[in-house]
Specification:
Two copies of one chain form a homodimer. Chain A has about 575 residues and is an alpha/beta fold. In chain A, about 40% of the residues lie in helices and about 15% in strands. The first copy, chain A, has three domains: about 260 residues, 3-Layer(aba) Sandwich (Rossmann fold); about 160 residues, Rossmann fold; about 130 residues, 3-Layer(aba) Sandwich (Rossmann fold). Chain A has 23 helices and 18 strands. At the A-B interface, helix 7, helix 8, helix 9, helix 10 and helix 15 of A face helix 7, helix 8, helix 9, helix 10 and helix 15 of B.
C-alpha cells in the first residue's frame, strides 16, 4: 500500500502522479472501512479526497494552515496527517474523532463541529500572521451547504478587506445535508454551468478574487491550481466542483441518505439496523405534524438543514409541499421567519438540534420572545450525551430558559408530549419551546392536561412526605427510580413531581412542600449552572428546606460514554440516595 | 401646517405633490425638534423622510405591512401613523419610543432594536399571507449598515425562494454607524456608480430581482417606483440611494457623529454636555488600549460597528491603523475572528455591547470557548438599565457565564479593571470576558492583584460575622452600603466579599463562611435566573446557611427609570436589609 509510507504530509511530496492516484483510492477504502464499521460522515469525506491530497501536496501544513469548515470532511486530512490507524484499524477508531481536533494533531487548527465558521476563524489566523510579519498561507475550506450560514457571509464580507494572502476553497458539491436551498445556490449553479465565467458572481460581488476548477476530483487540475495561487498576496476564492460521495455508486446516487450513516454493509450499502422496530419520538413527531398540516393549511413545518435528525423524510417533505421548508443552514433565519409567520396568523413549528439552537440566541430573544409571537420550537437531542464535544445537548436549558416570555416545556411521556405540542400550536400567547424527550417512547397511564396556558403549574404525580423529587423531562423516569430506592433502602415514601415547565417555578407547590418535607431533590438532563434546579434552590434559599440539585457539571465533555457520565455526575438512583443520605444522616 | 391634517396614512393620499414636499420639510423639523431636545437617532431618520412618505402614499398600511430593520429609522413612520405628538410636544416625547412597537400602533409589526432582522421577519409575514390565501404587500426596509449582519444574508438567501410578492427596500446611505466596512459595500458603490447597471450585482447573485432608484430623497421618483412594483408577484430588491442626515448641513457633513445624539443646540449642532468632565470607563479603556497597542504590535482592537459606545474615536481608529478594526455589524465574525487571531499568537480585544453579544452565543461557545483561545472580550453597558427593551444589558451573565472554559470577570474599581484587562491580554490559557463597570469611575485604596490565573478566588474585602455580602462588579458599592446599613440599623458587623469571578464559585471561602455566618446575601446587576447568585445558593442548598439573592427579575422591561427598577427589585440597602431581617426575625 502507498498509504504504508504516508505518516506525514511531507511523505506525500515524494509521490509521483500515479502513486497519488493510487493513494486516493486507498484513502477512499480507508474511509469506507471506518464508516461502514463505525458509522460517520460518508459523502462529505469521499468527495474531498483529491482536494485534500492536492492541498497537502502543494502547501506545507502545519506552517501553512488549513481550516476545515464543520470539519466533517476532515477524514482524508486525518489519514494523511498521521492518523490513518483510526481508519484502518477498528481498535483505533475511537482514538480519532470525526472532527478536527488540535489535541490530536498540530495539523488541526481548531476544534470545529458547527458550520460556517471557517472563513472568520481563518481570517483571524491571517490577520495575526500579518501583525507578526509572518508569511504562511492560510486556507479555509468551506462548502457542503455551509455557505448559507450567516457567519460564513460575515466572514466573506470581512475577508474581502484583508489585503494579504488568504485562500478560500469553496467545495461545491451541489448539496448540503439535504438538497441546497436558497438564492446563493442558484448562483453557484450558474457558475458551474458557465465554468466560472458568468459576470454575475456572488464571490466577486463580495469583493473577492475568484477562480474556478471544473473537476474538483481531478488531482492534477487541483495541484496545478493550488501551485498557481500559493503565496498569493490577496484573498481569493477557489470554487471547485466535486462529487459528494465520489467513488461508490450507491452513495453518489443517494447523496442525502449518505451524508452520515450508521454502520452498513459495504458491498450492498444496507444499513445495519439498530432500533427495536418501535417508532422514536422524532418519527412520531413527523407523523403528528403530517396529520396536523394536512388538516390545517396554516401549519408550517420548518427546519434548518436537519430534516434527517427530525425524521422529516423526503416523502414527508414532498407531501407537505408549501407547508414544509428546509431553510438550509440558517438557524437565525429559521427562528425570525417563524416569528414572522406566527405574527401573520400562521402556525409555525421549527424543529432544531439542541446544539444548533445556540446559533439563534438573539433571534429567540429579540425576534421571537420580545414580540411574544406564538411560534413552536421543538428541541431535539437535548440532554447529556456521549456525542462529540461540538454537538452536546446539555446547554439548551440555561440558554433558552433564562429568556423572558418563552415557555419551555419538558414532557415526560408520549401523551404529554403530544398534548403540549397540540397546545403549543393552537395557542396564541407565547413562544413555546418543547424539549422532545431524548428517551425511548414511554406511555403513562395517567390523565394528561390539554391546556398549558396556566403557566408554571407543577404536577404532583405521587404524594408522599419528607423527601420531594422534582424530576424534569427526560429524567422523570430517574425520579421514579429514586423514589423506589428511597422506599426500599430507607423506607421513605417520597413525593414525586413532574414540573413540566422549565421556565418558571410553581411557588404554591414549593411553598406547600415545606409543610411535610425536609428535602427537595431536583433532577435535570443538562448542566446545573443556570439551569432548572437552581431556580428551585433560590426559592428555598432563605428557608429551612434542604435542596439537592442533580445534573451535569458545566464542562465540555467529548465522546464520553453515557454510563461514565451518569456515574461521574451521580445520576443514578443509588448515588443520588447515597449523596442525600450522607448529608442528612451526618 | 400640513402635518396638522395627518393622523393616519390615509390622510397622506389626499395630498398633492407640493403638499407632500412641504410635509417632508415639516417631518424633518419634527424629528429635529425631538432629537435636539430629547436625544435619539438623528441621521437615520432624516435620511428616510421621502422614502417613508412614498411608502405610505403608495401602499396601504397596516394591511400592507412595512417592517423597518433596526427600526431606528422609524420616526417619520411614527409621525405619519398617528404619533406626531411624540415629536412635536415635549410632554409626549416619552410616550413614543425610538423603535417600532406594536403596543403603540397597528402600523408597527414588530418590536425591533437589533439589526439585520427585517428580511427574515418579513419573509415569515409573506409566507403566512400565502398560506392564508391573502394578497397584501409585504415590505422590508433594510440598510444603514444592516446588510453586513449574517441574519440579513440568511434572510435574503431564503427570500429568493419565496415565489410571491415580497419587496425589499435597501436604503443605501453609504454609511453604517461608523463608515461601512466589508466587501458587500464595494458592490453597493459599484451599483451606485453605474446607476444599478453593473452586471456583478450582489442581489442578483442572491437570486433576487432588482431595481435602482438614483435619488432616494426624490419623492416623485420613489412614488413612481413603488407604484410600478406594488402587487409584484415575486421578490424584488429596490436599491435606493439616500443621504443620511439629509436636510441639515452640519449633520450631512459628519454622518458618524450624528447617527445618534444626546440633546443639542439645533442652530449650531453643539451638544448639550452632560458628563462631569471626568473620563468614563470606556474613555479610559480606549486610552489603555491605545498605549497597549502602540507598545505591542500583536494587540488587535476589534468592534462590531459600535466604536462610538466604546469611545474608539475616529482619531483612535486612524492612529491604530492595522491594529484596529470595525468589522461592521457582524458580531459572529467579531468573536470567531478574535478566536483565530488568538490562536495564531495575536492579542485580540473585542469591545461589544452587552445586548449585542447575544448575537454571538454560538461563536462564544464553539469558536472560542471549546478552543480555549485567549481572546479578551470587553462587555460594555452590562447591567440593569432604563434603556429600550431591545437594548437591555441584564442578560449577559446568564448568557456567557454558563459556557464552560470562559473566565468572566467583574471588576469593582478602576485599578482592578485595568489589572484584569492587562492580565487578560497577556495570559494564554483562557477566553477572558470582562464586564466593564457600568458605573462612574471609582478608585479603591487597596492592593490589587495582577494575576487572575488562579481561577475563582473571591476576595474578602472586610471580615465580619453573621452576615456575608457577596457583591458582584457594578454592585460592589451597593454591598458597601448594605454593610453600613446592617451596622447602623442592626449592629451587625457583616463580611464584605468581592467575588471578582462571575463564572465560578470559591468553595473554600464559601465553606469557611459556615463557621461564623448564618446568612449570605448575593448582589448582581442583572437577572437572577441563570445568574451568579444562584450558583452560590446551589452550593449552600443542603446546608444550614440562609441565602438571599438580589438582582433583577427575568422580564423584559422597557424604558423604566432606574430608581423605579431598583425599588421594584429591592436593590437598595434599606430594602435589602429589611427583606433579610424580615425572614431572620420571623
Amino acid at each position: 500500500m502507498i498509504l504504508d509510507k504516508i505518516n506525514d504530509p511531507m511523505d506525500l511530496k515524494k509521490l509521483n502522479n500515479e502513486e497519488m492516484e493510487l493513494l486516493a483510492e486507498e484513502i477512499r477504502n480507508a474511509i469506507l472501512n471506518r464508516v461502514s464499521k463505525n458509522g460517520g460522515h460518508v459523502g462529505p469525506n469521499l468527495g474531498v479526497v483529491e482536494l485534500t491530497i492536492a492541498l497537502h501536496y502543494v502547501f506545507n501544513s502545519p506552517i501553512d494552515k488549513i481550516v476545515y469548515d464543520v470539519s466533517h470532511q476532515c477524514y482524508p486530512h486525518k489519514i494523511i496527517t498521521g492518523r490513518k490507524e483510526g481508519f484502518l484499524n477498528p481498535e483505533q477508531f475511537n482514538k480519532v474523532s470525526g472532527y478536527t481536533n488540535p489535541a490530536e494533531s498540530e495539523h488541526d487548527i481548531f476544534k470545529v463541529g458547527h458550520t460556517s465558521t471557517s472563513v472568520s476563524l481563518a481570517c483571524g489566523l491571517a490577520k495575526a500572521r500579518n501583525l507578526k510579519g509572518d508569511n504562511e498561507n492560510i486556507i479555509a475550506v468551506i462548502g457542503d451547504g455551509s455557505l448559507s450560514g450567516g457567519e460564513a457571509f460575515e466572514g466573506l464580507d470581512n475577508a474581502a478587506e484583508l489585503n494579504s494572502n488568504f485562500i478560500i476553497v469553496v467545495n461545491d458539491n451541489d448539496i448540503s445535508i439535504a438538497p441546497n436551498y436558497g438564492g446563493i445556490y442558484k448562483n453557484l449553479k450558474l457558475l458551474r454551468d458557465t465554468e466560472g465565467k458568468a459576470e454575475c458572481n456572488f464571490f466577486k460581488a463580495m469583493g473577492l478574487d475568484y477562480c474556478y476548477v471544473k473537476d474538483g476530483n481531478n488531482l492534477q487540475e487541483l495541484i496545478k491550481t493550488f501551485e498557481k495561487i500559493k503565496d498569493i498576496d490577496h484573498p481569493i476564492v477557489v470554487h471547485i466542483n466535486t462529487v459528494k460521495g465520489k467513488g461508490k455508486e450507491y452513495i453518489e446516487k443517494n447523496k442525502e441518505a449518505w451524508h452520515w450513516s450508521v454502520p452498513f454493509d459495504l458491498e450492498t450499502g444496507t444499513r445495519i439496523a439498530k432500533g427495536n422496530g418501535n417508532k422514536t419520538y422524532t418519527q412520531l413527531t413527523a407523523d403528528f405534524l403530517y396529520e396536523k398540516a394536512k388538516s390545517d393549511k396554516k401549519v408550517m413545518v420548518i427546519t434548518p438543514a436537519t430534516a434527517n435528525i427530525l425524521d422529516f423524510t423526503p416523502e414527508f417533505r414532498k407531501d407537505l409541499g408549501e407547508q414544509f421548508i428546509d431553510v438550509g443552514i440558517a438557524e437565525e433565519h429559521a427562528i425570525a421567519y417563524a416569528s414572522g409567520l406566527a405574527k401573520n396568523g400562521a402556525k409555525p413549528v421549527v424543529g432544531i438540534h439542541s446544539s444548533f439552537m445556540q446559533r439563534a440566541y438573539d433571534q429567540l430573544s429579540q425576534d421571537l420572545a420580545i414580540n411574544k409571537n406564538p411560534a413552536v420550537i421543538l428541541v431535539v437531542r437535548g440532554g447529556i450525551s456521549s456525542s462529540d464535544v461540538t454537538h452536546l445537548g446539555m446547554f439548551d436549558i440555561p440558554l433558552a430558559s433564562n429568556i423572558p416570555n418563552i415557555v419551555y416545556l419538558a414532557p415526560t411521556c408520549k401523551q404529554e408530549y403530544f398534548a403540549m405540542l397540540e397546545w403549543g400550536i393552537e395557542q396564541k400567547e407565547y413562544p413555546v419551546m418543547i424539549r422532545v424527550p431524548n428517551t425511548s417512547v414511554t406511555e403513562k397511564d395517567v390523565t394528561i392536561e390539554k391546556d398549558y396556558s396556566n403557566l408554571n403549574k407543577y404536577k404532583i404525580e405521587k404524594r408522599g412526605e419528607e423527601v420531594a423529587i422534582i424530576a424534569l423531562g427526560n429524567f422523570y423516569e430517574l425520579g421514579e427510580k429514586v423514589k423506589k430506592e428511597l422506599k426500599e433502602k430507607k423506607d421513605i415514601n417520597a413525593t414525586l413531581i413532574n414540573p413540566r415547565y422549565i421556565t418558571g417555578i410553581d411557588e404554591d407547590v414549593l411553598e406547600k412542600l415545606k409543610e411535610n418535607h425536609k428535602i427537595v431533590i431536583t433532577l435535570e438532563d443538562g448542566i446545573l449552572d443556570g439551569g432548572f434546579g437552581e431556580k428551585i434552590t433560590r426559592f428555598y434559599g432563605s428557608s429551612d428546606m434542604k435542596v439537592f440539585n442533580f445534573g451535569a457539571k458545566k464542562e465540555f465533555i467529548d465522546r464520553t460514554p453515557l454510563n461514565e457520565l451518569y456515574t461521574k455526575y451521580h445520576l443514578t438512583e443509588e448515588l443520588i440516595v447515597s449523596d442525600v443520605m450522607a448529608v442528612i444522616e451526618k
